[in-house]
Amino acid sequence: MRSKLEWRPARVIQIETPAEDVRAVTFAVEGLRSAFDPGSHTNIKVVIRGEPAIRTYTVLPSAPGTSTIAVKLHPNSRGGSAFIWGMAVGDETEMTEPENRFELSWRASRYLLIAGGIGITPIYGMAKALVGRGQSVRLIYGAKSRAQMAFADELGELLGDGLEAYIQDEGRTFDLATEFAALPADGEAYICGPHGLLEAARNAWRKSGRSMSRLRFEVFGDSGRFAEQPFSVTIPQYGRTFEVRADQTMLDALTEAGIDMVYDCRRGECGLCAVNIVDASAPLDHRDVFFSPEERHEGEKMCACVSRAVGGNVTIDTGYRLEARRV
């Protein structure tokens, strides 16, 4: 289980639209400290189908006492983005103090930043911080269309030739192997984007022979392989089966039902919420970046916070033993 989050009252004070289907919402947050590092994220309380829920978003560079998040209205959203898009100036909720698990090392001679779509949100803050400290930085930014590139104009002014846009509708895609080869030995790459981009980057980085400690990433969204579908989860040690809605994660469904779970990041990065798979009647959609492709193929474990069954039922072992809890 995770340590208790410290929630702070928050009120919407500004709403902007930096790109097609992207809304930037600024909150005045009570008791918020004045500064936080680029790549930080915050938790926010939302309401989905009339029920309270928690969603996590990157915090953009913000004025003291405020937190700004940029949210894409995603067709496969589990409800969080729809809630944020429905907010108006003056609306109130609660948010947590920003925390960072996607930190810049400040040790590299050159930085390569890679963003796919709304993955620009942590990368945008990193670019500003690196330029502000006079660091050598290049940003490659991919999106389906130019209209969907949030903060592109500002980043262009900031980075000049250090920014290169790759537009899918224009037939341009990343050449990761060439980008990685251009980095010096002590260079580092930071990447945020959809699951497929993360996998391609990890594979290209491994082939380059570079240390994996110098590739840092953050993932968001679905894998792109399957549409969201409801499924069920059976836990034999509890003798119960639980339903997981299409707009809900397995982790949320189980914790809401009172099942003890270990978890932390809720983004498929830390692996703490991984459960053992006993049996599955449907394909598994692994959306984490914790397990290797080989481990996902073996199908012995899955991260409850992001991964799903594609309909049907999956039987799992959470690792908890009821007998031990009764001692």
UniProtKB/TrEMBL annotation:
Q: What are the entry keywords?
A: Plasmid
Q: Where is the 2Fe-2S ferredoxin-type domain?
A: 231-322
Does this UniProt record's set of keywords contain Ribosomal protein? no
- A Pfam family per the record: NAD_binding_1
Q: What InterPro entries does the database record attribute to this sequence?
A: 2Fe-2S_ferredoxin-like_sf, 2Fe-2S_ferredoxin-type, 2Fe2S_fd_BS, Beta-grasp_dom_sf, FAD-bd_FR_type, FNR_nucleotide-bd, MRET, OxRdtase_FAD/NAD-bd
Record-annotated FAD-binding FR-type domain positions: 5-105
What's this protein's name? PDR/VanB family oxidoreductase
Q: Which organism is it from?
A: Peteryoungia algae
